[in-house]
């Protein structure tokens, strides 16, 4: 069943409207025609049901056809409604003004029925094409958004699993990275960081020890103290992690060459804010506030804020967790160690946020415990 086109006619002369209705009586089977005598009435009809086309006189008492064009154009809901303006034969200046305000077409009085039908059919046909194109674009945009969300979800899932895979090297449950991510979020919120930063930190922080993938098991899982040589090898996990997340891979380059992939002008191939933050955290999360950390010996606020947040969460959770090289310490002892490190290891401001969120941090320890995870493994 074909849906009728809704055509609204606006003119302050009822006799003219009656004449137009008679001229177009054969169109009643395909057009739903509405006749009003003022712009105010026209806008009321538009609010009731959006017309497919409006035919309006230009010069009317009170509000004119120009006012109608301006009102329609000021709203996104009505700006696309085509308007055919009717003018006198000698009103060339009014015609130009109507076109400037967005009129779709012009009709000259006295109205000829043949010309009226031809013009209105032409405008409605063009509008149908535009509506179809708009609908197609909306469907395409929706499909692109859905695909983008799918790709983003897949990318985040891969990053998450990558962080957890690294943690399995020396944590049988892999839950350390989950807890660190949740704790970092709480501390960043306590510091009143922007929501976009908090979200990025939550996703990037699990990658802090990704470089441990490059450390031999005999060092990573050694039950006793490391030798000085072994300690230096262990410290390399920071630069390794940064390179894993920052360096362009040979496989990626070869794939691009094979698939003839082309990057849009101005787009960096490795522009990924999440991996950039992850790389920064991997490199600098063992730096210390007083400059005694590694690998660069950064001091104070030269250490990225994301790394200062990860540092305190990493230490707090690691000390409270069983590892091959140490048993979990009681909460009181861990808090004593953390508090003694303020101003030396930890940023005092970050520690202040840590203390503010302490009850929630402890809740995370219980909610995502390694003991519960071992039972389910």
Describe the structure.
Helix 6 (175-190) packs across helix 14 and helix 7 (195-204) crosses helix 11. The protein is built from 16 helices and five strands. The chain is elongated and about 100 Å long. The chain has two domains: 5-138, Response regulator (Rossmann fold), CATH 3.40.50; 168-376, Hypothetical protein af1432 (Orthogonal Bundle), CATH 1.10.3210. The longest helix is centred in the middle third of the chain and has 55 residues, at 113-167. The chain has helices at residues 14-23, 39-48, 65-73, 92-100, 113-167, 175-190, 195-204, 217-220, 228-246, 250-259, 273-284, 305-319, 331-340, 348-356, 358-367, 370-376; strands spanning 5-10, 31-36, 53-57, 83-87, 105-108. A five-stranded parallel beta sheet has the order 2-1-3-4-5, sandwiched between helices. The chain has 377 residues and is an alpha/beta fold.
Specify the CATH class of the largest domain.
Mainly Alpha
Question: How is the main sheet built?
Answer: 5 strands, parallel
What integer is the average pLDDT? Answer: 86
Structural class: alpha/beta
Counting DSSP H or I runs of 4 or more residues, the number of helices is 16
* CATH fold description of the largest domain: Hypothetical protein af1432
Biggest sheet, spatial arrangement of strands: 2-1-3-4-5
CATH superfamily of the largest domain: Hypothetical protein af1432
Order of secondary-structure elements: EHEHEHEHEHHHHHHHHHHHH
CATH architecture of the largest domain: Orthogonal Bundle
Shape descriptor reads elongated
Radius of gyration computed on alpha carbons: 35 Å
Q: Separation of termini? A: 61 Å
Poorly predicted parts: 264-268, 373-377
Strand content: 5-15%
Helix content: 55-70%
């Amino acid at each position: 069943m074909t849906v009728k086109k809704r055509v609204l006619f606006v003119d302050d002369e009822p006799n003219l409207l009656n004449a137009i209705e008679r001229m177009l009586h054969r169109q009643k089977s395909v057009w739903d025609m509405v006749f009003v005598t003022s712009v105010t009435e026209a806008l009321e009809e538009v609010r009731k049901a959006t017309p497919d086309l409006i035919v309006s006189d230009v010069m009317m008492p009170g509000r004119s056809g120009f006012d109608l064009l301006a009102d329609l154009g000021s709203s996104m809901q009505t700006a696309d409604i085509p308007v055919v303006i009717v003018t006198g034969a000698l009103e060339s200046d009014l015609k130009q003004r109507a076109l400037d305000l967005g009129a779709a077409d012009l009709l000259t009085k006295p109205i000829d029925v043949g010309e009226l039908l031809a013009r209105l059919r032409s405008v409605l046909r063009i509008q149908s094409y535009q509506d179809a194109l708009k609908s197609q674009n909306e469907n395409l945009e929706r499909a692109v958004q859905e695909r983008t969300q799918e790709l983003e979800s897949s990318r985040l899932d891969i990053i998450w699993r990558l962080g957890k895979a690294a943690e399995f090297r020396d944590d049988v449950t892999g839950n350390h990275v989950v807890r660190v991510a949740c704790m970092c979020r709480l501390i960043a919120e306590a510091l009143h960081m922007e929501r976009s930063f908090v979200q990025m930190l939550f996703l990037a922080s699990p990658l802090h020890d990704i470089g441990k993938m490059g450390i031999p098991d005999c060092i990573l899982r050694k039950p006793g103290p490391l030798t000085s040589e072994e300690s230096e090898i262990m410290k390399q996990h920071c630069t390794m992690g940064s390179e894993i997340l920052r360096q362009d891979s040979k496989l990626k380059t070869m794939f691009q060459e094979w698939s003839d992939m082309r990057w849009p002008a101005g787009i960096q191939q490795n522009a990924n804010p999440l991996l950039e933050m992850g790389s920064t955290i991997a490199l600098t999360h063992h730096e210390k506030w007083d400059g005694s950390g590694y690998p660069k010996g950064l001091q104070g606020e030269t250490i990225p804020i994301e790394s200062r947040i990860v540092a305190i969460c990493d230490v707090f959770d690691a000390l409270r967790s069983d590892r091959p090289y140490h048993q979990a310490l009681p909460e009181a002892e861990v808090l004593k160690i953390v508090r003694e490190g303020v101003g030396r290891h930890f940023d005092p401001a970050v520690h202040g946020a840590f203390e503010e969120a302490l009850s929630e941090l402890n809740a995370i320890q219980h909610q995502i415990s390694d003991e519960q995870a071992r039972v389910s493994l």
